[in-house]
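Archive entry: two folds, one per protein. Generate the first.
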Amino acid sequence: MVIKNQQFLALNIDLILIIKSLNLVLPAFTALCILVFMDMLVVVINYSEGVNQTA
């Protein structure tokens, strides 16, 4: 029973560490996604403008 409790505690610590690291990574990842999305949007807008000019 004691061993199980220790394993559960270790698992809890692992989960806490994972959640803490996610709290650090998630904002950066979200910012990166937004930047990539903005870049794609700019590319699409430029492409559509180019198509409009050639037509």
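Generate the second and append.
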Amino acid sequence: MLLIEKYGDLMPRKVLSVSEALSHPLRRKIVNYLLENPGLSVRQLSRILNVSIGSLTGHIIILERVGLIKEVRNGRRLELYVNKNYFIENINKFWNNSLEVDFDGLE
């Protein structure tokens, strides 16, 4: 059973944007580690980040809900991956929106 199926109902249903989901430093670390090391398990990631599995699971569910990461079952093992196309698309949108500057009136 995937984490979001097992624990998703325990998490608040507030829909976050990608930028809100990435505003938490631990969630940024999770995405970064999964970009560099695709296919890590929750247990491996909890050891690397020195975070409890319970705390990590909540952050993973948030990242799954916004579409940034996905779980893939490989036999009995549950592997985590960044949804790279979605990540790149949303990071580009974030930067494009962040860099819009109104230069009218500046002299």
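Annotation attached to the second fold: The first helix runs from residue 3 to 7. Residues 21 and 62 are 7 Å apart (CA to CA).
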